[in-house]
Amino acid sequence: MEEEQKSKKCFQCNYFRAYYTKSSRNYKRTKNGFCIKRQCIVQNSETCEKWNIKVKHGYATLSIHRALKGILNEISEIRQIFGEEREEENL
Fold first, then answer.
1. For residue 10, with 0-12 CB atoms within 10 Å meaning exposed, 13-18 middle and 19 or more buried, which class applies?
2. What is d(CA 2, CA 28) in angstroms, rounded to the nearest whole number?
3. Of 12, 34, 50, 77, which residue is least crowded by CB atoms under 10 Å?
4. What averages of pLDDT result for each successive group of 10 residues across the chain (91 residues)?
């Protein structure tokens, strides 16, 4: 149980929002952040019982693109069928 809890650090939690500091050219992530669930400032290495896995948006976006491509192909096929039926009616 303790090993499992050690792997569930705040920086990997969906409820953790990291704080950033501004440098001369960009922003740098600090070791602190805000926990939305506990409503307090926490360090990114802390753990708690309210931990929830962070969803990777890149995978979700890729899945959405694949699904939309499939739907677009189906719509194109339906459009082709309607076009062929319309041509047959005009003959």
1. buried
2. 31
3. 77
4. 67 92 91 94 91 76 88 95 90 74
Residue 40 CA to residue 15 CA, distance in Å, equals 11
What is the secondary structure of the chain as a DSSP string? Answer: -HHHHHH-BGGGBTTEEEEEEE-SSSEEEEEEEEETTTTEEEETT-B-TT--BPPPHHHHHHHHHHHHHHHHHHHHHHHHHHHHHHHHHH-
- Adjacent-strand bridge partners of 42: 33
Q: Which long-range contacts (CB under 8 A, 24 or more apart) does 63-67 make?
A: none
